[in-house]
Each structure stands twice: as C-alpha cells, then as structure tokens.
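debug: dumping io for the single-chain case to check the tokenizer round-trip. Nothing else runs in this session.
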Amino acid sequence: MNEPVFLESLISYFEKLPGVGKKTATRYAYHIVEKLTDDQVKEFAEALVETKSTIKHCDSCGMLTNKDTCDICSSAYRNSKQIMIVKDTKDVVAIEKTNQYNGLYHVLGGLITPLEGVGPDELNINSLEKKIKEEIDEIIIATPFTPQGEMTALYLEKIYKNYDVKISRIGYGLPAGGDIEYVDELTLKRALDARTETKK
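debug: decoded output
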C-alpha cells in the first residue's frame, strides 16, 4: 500500500534533505502529524521561514551568517594576513572547534565538479583575488581529500602560483575520501599543524 496522498507533499519535502530517504521522510511526516501539537508545528514552520529569511552569506568571506559581515571577518584579533580556503561553512565550524587557527577564511560554496556542471565560475573564487593582491601573505587550501576537492585545490594552486604569497595545504591526518566536517578535532589539529607548502 502506498502512503496516503495527504502525506505525499510533506514526505517529498523531507526527501530533499541530505541523507533522508523515503522511509525516513515518511517517519518524519507521521511524527509531525501524530506527535506534534498545533503550536509546535506552527513554531517549526516559523523557525524555518525566519532562518531562511535572515541567514545570508558574509560579504567578505562567504560563510553563512545573520550579519552583513561575520564575526570572524570583523574581529580585530584575527590574523588578517592569513586566509584558509574551505568548501563550506560547516568546514569553518569544524576548524574553529580545534582552536588552532586564528586567521581568516574564504568559503568557496562548493567544489569543482564537472560531471554536475559546477566549474570555477560557479564558486566563490573571483572575490578572493583582490584580497590576495592587497592583504594576504599566506593561503591555506583546506579542501577535502576527494577527487573534487583535489581538482579544486590544484586549480587554486595554478591560478595563484605566480602571486607573491605563500601557498600551503593541510593534509596530515585527514583520511582519503573524507570530508573535513566529519573529522575529529584531534585529527584536524594535527592536519593544521602539519600543513605543507606547495609553492616555494
């Protein structure tokens, strides 16, 4: 028996979430209908709308924030001469938890993925060039050890190799095929401590 028609719309929206298949989406839908009160459902819907309408990308680095400029970019205590390039905001959060890095970030908003039609022009790369020319002494490339991450890292190394800036990459301790957001804090600390320079 197929799921009731009146749940199909709700199930279809849950299925859009990463890692949520048909069974999990169906379970979520039934839970909302059977277990949550009307007030809880209303609060849930309001939280979704409010979050979506107030969260945006930092004008400077591209990470998600509820301000025009995020707290990291606006901090007077960060090393403004050092910038770490990451895939997304989740990577920034993971690295910040290590308390081992005090520079700035630049969030790409994804990785170069030709099979999905994602090239350099679809990523937040162009805004980085002005920063590097005027402010930055070191670029730390912290893309994941996946084919897409490596392709993106190599592209970045290529376009910035002639700039008067040190280019390094984190690498030690990160498993091949792994995403930064899922790596434990100790492993991330060791990776940051053992980053290697790619341009001399």
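debug: round-trip ok. Residues 36 and 97 are 34 Å apart (CA to CA).
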